Amino acid sequence: MPETVELPEWPYPVIGQIRQLLTDAGLHEYESRIDAELSRQAVPSASVVVVGETNTGKSSLVNAIVGREGLVPVGPDVATNVHVIVRHGPKDEMIVYRESEGADGILRSDELDLEPWASVSGNPDNQKSVRAVEVTLDLPVLESGLTLIDTPGVGGLDTAHGRITLAALADADALLFVADPDRPMIQPELDFLRLATERIGTVVFVCSKIDVQAGWGQIMEEDRQLLAANARRFADAPWLGVSSTLESTAARWEREGRPAADVADLRQEAGVDELRSRLLRHVVDRVAFARRVSVLQLCQQAIEVLEQRQQAVADAGPTLAEQLKREEERLAALDAASAQWPLRVSDGFTLLRSRLQNQLADLVKEFGRRYGDSGLEPFMGHPDTLEESLLREVNAVGAELTLGLRNGVTEIEVDILELIAPAGIELTEADLPSAAEIAAVQATLTGGPDHLNEGGKVRNVRLAYSAVAQGMSFSGISHLAFLAALGVSSVSFFGVGMGFGALLAIAEAKGHRKQAKLQELRPLVQEALQLTQSKLSLQLQEAVLQIQRQLEAEARNRIKEEHRVAAETYQRCQQQMAASSSDQASAAAAANEQLAIIENLRLRCAKRVEELRAVLADATI
């Protein structure tokens, strides 16, 4: 946060004063929306996805950031092979999410022993069918809202794991990219970052293991040049050199009672303190400040409505007649929107269904090409390993469909925005959905006997993909989606849910294949392709239909509410014009007093927003 900006204590008094005016005016809808946004802002959270090629030190770095050596399994023989989510909780606990149905699919333990579940050595080829492992820790560094997601390094960034992680970045708050100090970036890393530029706004580059590589500075400079040529958006991104080993040594020195100055010097050399501080200041704090802006923008919307009402009373003669005309035009625009938008939505979703089916067909073809005869060679003699790889591919297809579905719905939302723009409906970041609203939509989309188990159907889908479980990302919002503004999430991970649904279908048939022969590799691939095409196609249609129904219902309600407010204003204008001169003068005087109060609130809101935007503009990591 810039030192020149001193923010008042939150929540700002101006918000309470605006709420009181809304109560007095009977505008309870805005009052409720402000309350909901305040509640959401009270628990800020930010997810940081940790990514890097195999054995670059991702897990060690996660352990160092939270100050828990040995928490996430480390070492070449115990590499992480499933997503591990580390977040704040009231107590230290490990939660393992598996494919099993019902309560058997969730294992809770106060013993934080992740290796049997999350590592290659403890769970080779993910034989225990683990979806994700979540760890909650009661630590100050996490209490602020920081959530770390350690991604699997098995197979590298050019595998299905990499594609799933790419899909997750659209809703993460930051990407922590861990580079190897022994060599410049390789092509899979560069390809990953080139694609990541479209999906993430904040990236922190870390050169790990600087204690064992004297020439890491030169390698880092070469990485910068490679980024300039392959991922230009990140060419000027800052880099930090870190050593998890030195941080661990500093922690041991501190426990042993070594001189504080020596501990501080070693920690400074390790660089983890600086990384931790930057993540908290420029990722977690950014989310919290952006949500404050959302609350204030919603307050500004309310101020506009309050002012409009009072202005209708304060104005007289020709001015009042002009406002009456404006309200007539607004009512006409709302009537036109009400008549036209259902057809626009229907046409938009018809095109979207066709586009998504084509996307699914292309993804399945690409899937098949990757597992042609040459692609099957590494799996000769290892059918179980092939099965695990196929499961990841199904997940990757589901994750990529998520993005296609999200982008398509956004286009429909923008189209509706253009249609209703003449009616004067304004949207702000405050209209984005809450985590609870996301969960409500997602629970519907992922429910049912053929989908995920009931006990963890929503949570399991989201856990491995970070941000939604902790709240929406504010780091990369370029425009506001209409559906989100209506309180329904077009960005929930229904695509990932579909991926897991197909994955489960394959997993259910694994038992009879344990002794698969070499010549049965091709049938395994064909079965996976057929299940992906048929099951995802069906679930895709269900998801699109559900989202369409939600959009139609909420759009209808929102436009109806706007129509009611416009009609009330129109009626007040008529009543004021019909009142006697003395009554008009008295009412106008009282209204002008209220307008002065409203103007003061407007200026104070604007000042607070300006302060927060100054903080958010300081995006240097």
Could you give a quick summary of the protein structure above?
The chain is 61% helix and 8% strand. By secondary structure, the protein is of the alpha/beta class. Strand 8 (203-207), helix 8 and strand 9 form a beta-alpha-beta unit.
User: What shape does the CA trace take?
Assistant: globular
Strands side by side in the biggest sheet: 4-3-5-2-6-1-7-8-9
Strand content: 5-15%
Biggest sheet details: 9 strands, mixed
- Continuous helix count: 21
- Secondary structure: helix percent: 55-70%
How large is the radius of gyration? 27 Å
Poorly predicted sequence stretches spanning 5 or more consecutive residues: 427-518
Tell me how many strands there are: 9
Kindly report how far apart the N and C termini lie: 11 Å
The helix-and-strand class reads alpha/beta
Tell me, rounded to a whole number, the average pLDDT.
74
**H/E series, N to C?**
HHEHEEEHEHEHEHEHEHHHHHHHHHHHHH
Molecular structure report:
There is one protein chain. With 621 residues, the protein is an alpha/beta fold. It contains 21 helices and 9 strands. It has helices at residues 13-25, 28-41, 58-66, 115-118, 140-143, 160-169, 187-196, 216-230, 244-256, 260-270, 272-314, 318-370, 373-376, 383-420, 435-446, 457-463, 467-470, 482-485, 494-508, 521-578, 581-617, and strands at residues 46-51, 83-88, 93-98, 106-109, 130-137, 146-150, 174-179, 203-207, 239-241. It has a 9-stranded mixed sheet with strand order 4-3-5-2-6-1-7-8-9, with helices on both faces. Strand 3 and strand 4 form a beta hairpin. Helix 3 (58-66) packs parallel to helix 9 (244-256), helix 6 (160-169) packs parallel to helix 14 (383-420) and helix 12 runs antiparallel to helix 14 (383-420).
